Amino acid sequence: MSPREIVALRDYLSPELNDRTISDAHHMVSLTDVLSHTVLSGRLHELAGRSVLLRLSNQLRSGLAMIELDGIVRRMLLCPPDLNPAHLDTLIADAGIDAVVTDEPDRWAGTGVSLVVTAQLPLQATAPAKTERATEWLMLTSGTSGVPKIVGHTLEALTGAIVAEGPAKGPAPVWATFYDIRRYGGLQIFLRAILSGGSMVLSDPHETLADHVIRLKARGVSHISGTPSHWRKLLMSGSAAQFAPRYVRLSGEIADQAVLDGLKAAFPNSSVGHAYASTEAGVGFAVNDGLEGFPANYLGNRNGVEMKIVDGSLRIRSTRTAHAYVGRNAGPLTDGDGFVDSGDIVELRGDRYYFVGRRGGIINIGGLKVHPEEIEAVINRHPLVRMSRAKSRKSPITGGIVVADVILTEGTDPARAKEIRDQILDQCRAQLAPHKVPAVICFVEALDVTPAGKLARTNA
């Protein structure tokens, strides 16, 4: 492939579209300026052809660096903010890193990395860069306490679903996400903003939810995504009443009917749907009919994405999937037929498949396997429940029992606690096998969410 055939992110930044911006809680940058300015202190040429680690303290500098580096460096590894520093040496070795882009250069003194480039704002004027090569994008998996896996993508694979949808209709969208853009879900929204001709508003982990919503409204955000846990927190906060996006999407966790109905009630004039994607499998499909799960006829080859169920697990093959795990001891990413095993367990009920949980998230109750998400979906259907988390607790008799922490909707009368607890248990007994019914229900004020936006899961 010649350089003229390679498309990089800078090639989507038309000088004519001069009202496009990318912003966080502190800065706003014109995307048109990115074509003739640098966040890399004018040192992009030193990084050409290298394998670069992006280790930056905020999303804005990260996003600007991604645009500048794509099409110039050989590969870039995106580090999320919660990455354990103890894993860096292993990841640097596995990815063959020979340069670092950072905003904390002093931390890299004496590490042995041959080139350290500082990313800083404000942007500095520079000569426009030209795309030289197809850059390999490396991302890290989440949800593991050990060294995360490195997943290799091309820009073409990362943007496959975006390109297939075609240009956005109507006014140029202003995108936002509760995700960090250095995670797969957040990166997808960042790329949609770049390819759609729109703008991007970034989240800030130090900002209150109420202040975040005020900023989203002030910046005119029209399209926004997050995990179901993100959205439940927004619904609990009462801030949703101050916000009216046109497009609301959920991904990253199981979207149960309760959260979908809650969002439709909060945003009656919005398009509310949920998407299936993962770092390895890429973007699989979107569901826009307002119902949890997905139609059974999605299996097979649909819009270039092939799906099948093997031993209850969803498997996906398409040009949007990652091409490999990267590293010295990396195993195969796909099976012999090129399918990625997602590890997401589904169950057919009538003409629809429903997600019941992760293969690796099963808890053991008296020797029986239980998906906590299945229990949570039933609890969340109670009209006074906003959010729940099911987990196991050791029992000297059965070996384990189900316990559930539950957040009730704001304004629920505490005097009704016993009545509501009994109603939830009756609901569980009617819809779940006996060993899945919680033995204990605790009403709590909050539930922890991981930096990736997913419900934090621990077993007692």
Structural overview:
The chain is α/β, with parallel strands linked by helices and 460 residues long. It folds into 2 domains: 347 residues, Rossmann fold (3-Layer(aba) Sandwich), CATH 3.40.50.12780; 82 residues, GMP Synthetase, Chain A, domain 3. Helix content is 21%, strand content 28%. The protein has an 8-stranded mixed beta sheet with strand order 2-1-12-11-13-14-15-16, sandwiched between helices. Strand 4, helix 2 and strand 5 form a beta-alpha-beta unit. 43% of the residues are buried.
Write the layout of secondary structure elements.
Blueprint: E1 21-23, E2 28-30, E3 37-38, H1 44-47, E4 51-55, H2 59-69, E5 75-78, H3 88-94, E6 99-102, E7 116-118, E8 124-125, E9 136-140, E10 150-154, H4 155-158, H5 160-165, E11 174-177, H6 184-196, E12 199-201, H7 209-218, E13 223-226, H8 228-237, E14 247-250, H9 257-266, E15 271-278, E16 282-287, E17 294-295, E18 300-302, E19 305-310, E20 313-317, E21 324-326, E22 340-349, E23 352-358, E24 363-365, E25 368-370, H10 372-379, E26 385-393, E27 401-408, H11 417-431, E28 440-443
Parallel strand pairs: 1-12, 4-5, 4-6, 5-9, 6-7, 11-12, 11-13, 13-14, 14-15, 27-28
Antiparallel strand pairs: 1-2, 3-8, 9-10, 10-21, 15-16, 17-23, 18-19, 19-20, 20-22, 22-23, 24-25, 26-27
Helix pairs in contact: 8-9
